[in-house]
Amino acid sequence: MMKKFLLVVCGSFVGVILALTFFVIATILFSLSVASMGSGKAASVSDHSILHIDLDGEISERSTTPTPSMSDLTTGSMPAETMGLNVLVKALEEAATNDKIDGVYIECNGALAAPATMTALRKALKSFKTKTNGKKFVYAYANQGYGQGDYYLASAADSIFVNPEGAVDLHGMASSIPYLKRLMEKVGVEMQIVRVGTFKSAVEPYMLDSISPANRLQTEHYLGSIWEEISNDIAADRKIAPEKLNEMVDSILVTRSAQEVVELGLVDGICFRKDFEKKLKALTDVGEDDDLSFVTPDELATDLDTPASGEHIAVLYAVGEIDDSDDDMNDDAIHGEKMVEIIDELTEDDNVKGLVLRVNSPGGSAFASEQIWKALDDFKASGKPIAVSMGDYAASGGYYISSGAGRIFAEPTTITGSIGIFGTIPCVQELVENKLGVHFSVVKTNKNADMGLMTKHLTPMQQAALQQMVNRGYDLFTRRCAEGRGVTQDSIKVIAEGRVWDGKSALKIGLVDELGGLDEAIAWVAKEAGMKKDCETQCYPSLEEDWKAIFAKAMSAQAEARMADEMGLFYDYYKELQQTLGRDHVLCLMLDRVQL
Fold first, then answer.
1. Which domains does the chain have, with CATH numbers?
2. What is the pTM of this model?
3. Residue 282 pLDDT greater than 80, yes or no
């Protein structure tokens, strides 16, 4: 009996060891495949090829491989990359000069992106057309129909086609903000809030049941300005009067038939996919019975993360919320300590002759924002030029870290400003005592020793102390902005108050220096550094990860997916509360999100 028991135990132990060994080997092989991505040479391009841009899903700042599932790790398969704005723009640049590429095919399947990302991509497409001077075509096609973001890009094409059962969905822009005050009251959580800035709306969902007049005013302004930019671009390229286009938009355009949108001038032709491919074959001298030769953006833009060979301009991506943690599990955040470490290394690197900080952030921790600002100030003090290129957002803490740059570039559809600060301390006393029946007894040596405990309310004295701390933070924030912009602190306070601005308005009031994108920022830094316009650049931080980090993220993603499946509709609310409770108490943050 004992012998049988020992055999079972030993067999199980060996089985576990073998399984773990296989798992580790598979994970290492997977990580090696991730590390090797983008390091190869450009794909071989045959004559009469077409750059195929498939607008399907989210467009991020940089192409990355999503966190693999446990199944991916054990099988060694590779998840599909996210679309990166950097890759799409680079591919269009390469396609313009590659004699084997005859044109660009934009397949519209529902891109998810904020306005500034689509503006930057559209500018790259227009640049392609300018460089090729009509010698290469740009065609757009939608099988099921054009979403608003898709159509904004497609409107720059030479010709736009749609399936006979497809449609065009242009509806304008709206901002929908969930107000959580009543939900939190039901749960038994109260957000104790102090803030500076009439327009600082990030705390409104916890204070109010609906939007404040100040927030409505600023939102109407920046949405109106961004939509004006987008609708004017569409109207100009489609040769439609802007007021006429807005009449179409107000008519619930998505309900119109494909034939009607052709008659309105929004689309050039109706055809099934097979017939559209015939048009592409005719443009590329490909026989009807032969296959079209497509090239993906990834196959053209393969050297983006290649280390520079010598002197270069550093392009440092600051993407996501700013926090003061060192959490490797969250890729969608700017970790203050790690960002400072990278900037310090760039300052000391003699091969780095200048820096472009690419900011796409709604802000976050006030403390971490100040640390990043200081590191960037040290970089500037070393005599090296620094510029900021703003993406979708450079708001609140995102503007804080941008404010000291020698020159700030923004898209007209960028959202920036929000120079304000707030502090929050959640109180769960109602939840734990009245709903869960748990009472906390506190013993303390001094009257404010329990300040900050989430199980009790702040006293008036503690509330006043927190307000004083936030006031000091706001004073420092506006002082940093004034120093960076070379103006008085009082003049910054006039346009601050937490107010959000679009890029075009920010240019008028002096928060940014120039409308433009990453390329313009790089060109400015190169000129200031005395380098050639086409000098080498290198992107930071590195996207490579070791197998342990990949494995840990896969485990975390699996646990989160299971929780989302079990909680269903309640999961989004749970995540919102979790993020709120987990953030730093003093924040420079804007929570509104805008997508096309």
1. 49-171+252-300 (3.90.226.10), 312-545+585-589 (3.90.226.10)
2. 0.85
3. yes
